[in-house]
Structure prediction request, 590 residues.
Amino acid sequence: MTTYSAPLRDIMFVLTELADIDGVAALPGYEEASPDVVHAVLDEAAKLAAEVLAPLNQIGDQQGSRLVDGKVVTPDGWKQAYQTFIDSGWNALAFEEQYGGQNLPWLLATAVQEMWHAANMSFGLCPMLTQGAVEALILHGSEQLQDRYLSKMVSGEWTGTMNLTEPQAGSDLSAVRMKAVPEGEHYRLFGQKIFITYGDHDLTDNIVHMVLARLPDAPEGVRGISLFLVPKMLVDENGEIGQRNEVRCVSLEHKLGIQASPTAVLAYGDNQGAVGYLVGEPNRGLEYMFTMMNLARHAVGVEGLAIAERAFQQAKTYAMERVQGRPIGTPSEDHAAIVHHPDVRRMLMTMKAKVEAMRAMVYAWASAHDKSHRHPDQAERLRQHNTVELLTPVVKGWCTETGNEVASLGVQVHGGMGYIEETGAAQHFRDARITTIYEGTTGIQANDLVGRKVLRDQGQAARAFIDGLRDIDFDALDGVGRAVESGLGHLEQATDWIVGAAQRDPRLPAAASAYYLNLWGTVIGGWLMAKAALVAQKKLDAGDGDEKFYRAKIETARYYATHVLPQSVALLHTINEGSEASLAIAPELL
Prediction:
């Protein structure tokens, strides 16, 4: 059985030195987020992750969730763990007090979410989807729906889902065909949804589905999609559960990973139709769904970080313990642990550097998210909102691709033992694979970055963001600073190319988009690593704190600057010179 220990020292460093937890806690409404509260929340979350969730990770992988006589049965220990989770109030952490929440920053919730997904990603997916459904209901639901459903969803007593995909409508939501027929104050829904995470389970008494469907008179395409709340169990005006709604789990998908997370095929309306309630206004469903989608995309980026952290911890422990071969350059004839072999050290340093870059990025996004909603200055709220918009596809796309890479390296560090399921390294690799697909594939994120975030204003917001990163002087870091400045220059040149290429051939930016997203992640990750090293150097100069910890920060940033940031040169070259080659061969000649 593999273990997990939350990296609290690293988490606190990023929260305090890179993500401005003190500034976030000072925002209106976050008065409860004192340093003592922050530390207490992190400590308790770490205990739950290590002692309750992590021991179930391999059990869940081996048993999986099963469909038995039309009911989904989760693995051993799942129900008890979920009850502990909601009894401790974890689901309510970041929601407002008026809905039963604890009114703590999303930044703090992000750190906690990292622990859930690192300890047990299959488990963490359930509250992740519920949180998105809650946010959509808070922003767009009627007062009646909020009164009836929100308190129990915020507490986690009831869970929530996101129902987008249909057999004929994958990423192309314009092809959604689920029908919603008006009937008095509610609607009757008919159709099928696939790939529904925690679409059915035995953890709670009710599941609240957020479902995209079409009204009879709806226009074609995405403009004709509405959003409906469809409970598994009907709820009366007093909030009490009544009879079963016409929603049933037809089957569970057989997947590569996240075996314990039930991915359901749901059938709506076998007979009279499933009772549903319109959320917001007709034909604005896709707009509302993106409320859930953007939070979910950030959360999946957190998953990429989390599974990478878990894979790194396991690989490091194995490398420290596995004795194999004689160290190069030493006179000793004794065998030594493989951590002493240079190539193993290279792999571990790559894992460590990328994990730290991802953590800084997803926490920085969460900080900007909090400030975009709570900062008293309107101009600052807008600036932070623009940062969130620009970085959302980067966080989701780059962190998940990087998480897959790190999980793969974790298997490689183990050698042949990594390919054996009993060690657990292979599970992290399998579990990580879905993250680049969830909530829009990497290609969709890249197209979003290019089309909706860069080309919509001819690159002005992107250039302004890049210029803002140059406000920090990294000269004290010598080669690290030069590497960051070079990377920023490459990112700026690539942005200029994207804008210019769109005028020549609109296909070219799309052909370059995945490389462009990778360039963004690589460079922003390097900038954040350099910022961390600058803080560490100042701490050392002042004789403040743990010398070994801060020296490791500096050396890890130097590794990133010499091993990862140089990739920006190749990425820029591929964007500039290789995009036309992607389109040169006719499809029939592939």
Observations:
- The mean pLDDT is 96.
- The two ends are 45 Å apart (CA to CA).
